[in-house]
Amino acid sequence: MPKLRITSFNIEWMNDWFTNDSDQPAFRDSFIREDHISNTHVTAQRAANTIKEIDPDILAIQEAPSRPEELGLFIKKYLSVNEKPIYDFILSDAGFQQKLAILTKPNVINSIKLAPHFTIANLIDEWLADIDGDEQLEVYQFTRLPLVVNVEVGGESLQIIVLHTKSNFVNKGREMWENLATRQNYIHEALRNRRRNSAEAMRVRQYIETMLKDKRCEKSIILGDFNDGPGMDYFEKNYLTHNTTDVLVGSTYEPEFIYHHAQHDISSNLRYTSIFDDFVTGEKNKHILLDHILLSPALSTNHGLRRVRGSGNIHHVEYERNTVNKGFYRENRPSDHRPVSVILEY
C-alpha cells in the first residue's frame, strides 16, 4: 500500500543565507544572526541533512527565502542526487522575507497546483476584525497569506493549507516587561499580537468549515508554524481565555468537523518543537509545541487516502543529530524549530 510522508519545517530565516533582493540571487558566504557570524554552508547543510533524513514526499517550509531563484539554489546544492533535484517547489508570492513554500517529489504525486483565487478569497482578501480590543472592527489581512495547494495523489484530491500565523514577538519585550513603567505597554502589544493570531485562526476555521459543509474538499491538511501551542500561555489564560490551535481544531458542538491533531500521537514529554526562556513567567527552557499538522475528519477513515494511525511525529532524533553546541548559534542548529510530520496511505 503506497504511503506519503508530509512534513512541516520552519527553517529559521533562510533569507539570511542569500544576497539582497536587489542583487543577483546567490548564497552569501556568511551571515549575522544573534550578533554572531555564522557560516552559510554549515547552516544550510544542517537543515538539508535533517530534511534528507526525514525524507518527506511533501515538505511545507515556513521562513523560506524571498525569491524562487534562492529556493531553487538551496534545492540544487543541498537536496539533489547526481545534480538532479529531489524536489519541485512552489514559493508563495506573499510574506516578504519569510515566505511559505511547498516542496514535492515529482515521482510520488500526480499533480500539485495553487488553489484558484476565487476558491480561497475568504483566506486572501481583507476582512473586518477587532485586533486591538477597542470594540471597533477594522480592516485586517493575514500577516503572511496562507499558501493553499490542491494535490492529486492515488486518484484522490487533497488540499494542503500552509500557515505561518502572526508572531507573538514584541520588540524589546523583555526590557518592557521588566520595567514597571513600560510593562502595561508590553501587555498591550502582546495582546494585540495574540488577537491578530486568533483572528487569522478564526478566518481559516471559517474557510474550512464552509469547504467541509459544502463537500468541496473533504480531505485537507492545515500545517505549519501557528505560533501557539495546546494549552494557554499567560496572556491567553488571563486575558483572552482561548488559544489559536483550539480555534483551528473545531468545536465539540460539531464533532463531524473536528480536525485530528497528528502530534497528539507523540508522548506528552516529547510534544514540543521549540525551547525558549519565558521572561513573563520566569520559566527557563520552556518547551512549547508551535508547529502542527491538523487533518480533516475524512483523513481518519479506513479507506482511500487516510492517515496511518500513530504516524504523527516530531523529529527530535533527526534534529539533535544535526545540532552541536546545544544549538547556541545559528550555524550550530538546523533551525530553532523541530520538524513535524505525518504519514498518509492510499
Written overview of the protein:
This protein has one domain: Endonuclease/exonuclease/phosphatase (Deoxyribonuclease I, Chain A). Helix content is 25%, strand content 28%. It has 8 helices and 21 strands. The strands form 6 sheets. Strands 1, 4, 7, 8, 19, 20 and 21 form a 7-stranded mixed beta sheet that branches. Strands 9-12-13-14-18-15 form a 6-stranded mixed beta sheet, with no helix packed on it. Strands 2-3 form a two-stranded antiparallel sheet. β5 and β6 form a beta hairpin. α5 crosses α6. The longest helix is centred in the middle third of the chain and has 31 residues. The protein is globular. The protein starts with a strand and ends with a strand. The model has no long low-confidence stretch (mean pLDDT 95).
Helices and strands in order, then pairings?
Elements: E1 3-10, E2 30-33, E3 36-39, H1 40-54, E4 58-64, H2 68-78, E5 80-81, E6 84-85, E7 88-91, E8 99-104, E9 111-114, H3 121-124, E10 127-129, E11 138-140, E12 147-153, E13 156-164, H4 173-178, H5 183-213, E14 220-225, H6 234-240, H7 244-249, E15 260-261, E16 274-278, E17 283-288, E18 291-295, E19 306-307, E20 313-314, H8 316-321, E21 340-345
Parallel strand pairs: 1-4, 13-14
Antiparallel strand pairs: 1-21, 2-3, 4-8, 5-6, 7-8, 9-12, 10-11, 12-13, 14-18, 15-18, 16-17, 19-21, 20-21
Helix pairs in contact: 5-6
